[in-house]
Specification:
With 220 residues, the protein is α/β, with parallel strands linked by helices. The protein has seven helices and six strands. Strands 2-1-3-6-4-5 form a six-stranded mixed β-sheet. Strand 1 and strand 2 form a beta hairpin. The longest helix is centred in the middle third of the chain and has 17 residues. About 4% of the residues have low confidence.
Length: 220
């Protein structure tokens, strides 16, 4: 797939062929969903906790006598049915982490990038650099490149001027290319990347794990 390469003014300066294995991969929506669920789950701290009846600080005295009141018998004010008592089956600290093989994670990223490329939502720049942090200039540049769409700007390496310029924009986000993830890809309309970021993404996603085998064909 060939796409134009633009400069920061929005003018086409050349064109480039996107890697087929990354931007024209088979789209697996189920795999993308699995990767998104994993990422959202791994972001949870799991520190929620409610006190049970054994943890509530209330009196241990019996509420009222066992017989003669006409009411049901009760022996503790900590019971979940009473106000101020413990919580029955409340949340406890736990881990929500999910595992996913690296090849599946890479395949999910390739599927998401292929969806963006198929919809014409990939914007390639020859370079992205700013002399000083300037949110107004960054907003004007993104307006030229993506109109009113939200944008995910991928950087090959951290750039303080670019990061500070885009930080206060509600419709854009700067992200290191090696931190590319399904949630951000699907959460923004356009993906803006300079050539250096495209090269880094290609290096990360095209590399395949090849096991080393000995002469007898057994894995080492």
């Amino acid at each position: 797939m060939k796409v134009p390469v633009l400069n920061m003014a929005g003018e086409e300066v050349s064109s480039i062929e996107l890697p087929v294995s990354v931007f024209e991969a088979d789209i697996n929506r189920g795999l993308m969903h699995q990767a998104l669920v994993r990422q959202m789950a791994n972001a949870r701290q799991g520190t929620h906790k409610a006190k049970g009846r054994s943890e509530v600080n209330r009196t241990t005295a019996k509420m009222y006598r066992q017989k003669g009141t006409g009411n049901a018998r009760h022996g503790s004010r900590r019971a979940p049915i009473f106000v101020g008592g413990g919580v029955a089956h409340g949340p406890r600290p736990r881990k929500y982490t999910k595992n996913m093989p690296r090849k599946m994670r890479r395949a999910a990223l390739c599927s998401a990038l292929s969806v963006k490329a198929g919809g014409g939502d990939i914007v390639v720049l020859d370079e992205l650099a700013m002399d000083a942090p300037k949110t107004k200039d960054m907003a004007a540049m993104l307006e030229r490149l993506v109109d009113d769409s939200t944008a995910l700007v991928l950087l090959a390496e951290w750039d303080e001027n670019v990061d500070k310029s885009i930080r206060n924009l509600a419709n854009a986000k700067a992200l290191r290319a090696n931190y590319l993830n399904v949630r951000d890809l699907l959460g923004y309309d356009k993906v803006v990347m300079p050539l250096s970021s495209l090269e880094m993404i290609n290096d990360i996603l095209v590399v395949e794990d090849v096991a080393d085998f000995d002469e007898e064909g057994e894995e080492e």
